[in-house]
Amino acid sequence: MMIHASIRMKFAARQFSKARDILDSLVERTRVSPGCVECYVYQDVKENRVLLFEQWWEREADLDRHLRSELYGQVVLVMEMAKEFPVVRFSQISTTSGMEAVAKSRGVVGPATPPP
């Protein structure tokens, strides 16, 4: 069962750039952690100074190990910099699908093909 972890954080103007730089520096180091599938930092384009730190983990044990790591301690420090209480979510995903779900819902017969 895959685990999706996300943290949505809003920062004061004086903290935003520093928080973004710290999270950016953690992405590649997190991606090479055992069991990490992906890690991203997103900046909200509609709401000022909001960042989303998103991770995908192969197993709950991998995520647990990461949450206890020194690396994640830096994420906690960034959360403490937030202007508002961060929104933290951990979701267990048992199945995933892609374009085939779109094609099926829209009544497309045959394999869904990507645009050229």
Mean pLDDT: 93
Which class of secondary structure composition applies to the elements? alpha+beta
Regions with pLDDT < 50 over 5+ consecutive residues? none
Rg, rounded, reads: 17 Å
Question: What is the helix content?
Answer: 25-40%
> What is the global morphology?
globular
Strands, count? 4
Largest sheet: 4 strands, antiparallel
The CA-CA distance between the termini, in Å, is 33 Å
Strand order across the largest sheet: 2-3-1-4
Give me the strand/helix succession: EHEEHHEH
Oligomer: single chain
Beta strand % = 25-35%
Number of helices: 4
In short:
This protein has four helices and four strands, in the order βαββααβα.
Task: Tell me about this structure.
- Helices cover 40% and strands 28% of the residues.
- The protein is globular.
- It has 116 residues and is of the alpha+beta class.
- Strands 2-3-1-4 form a four-stranded antiparallel β-sheet.
Overview features:
single chain, 4 strands, 4-stranded antiparallel sheet, 116 residues, alpha+beta
What is the topological layout?
Blueprint: E1 2-10, H1 13-31, E2 36-43, E3 50-57, H2 60-67, H3 70-81, E4 87-93, H4 99-105
Antiparallel strand pairs: 1-3, 1-4, 2-3
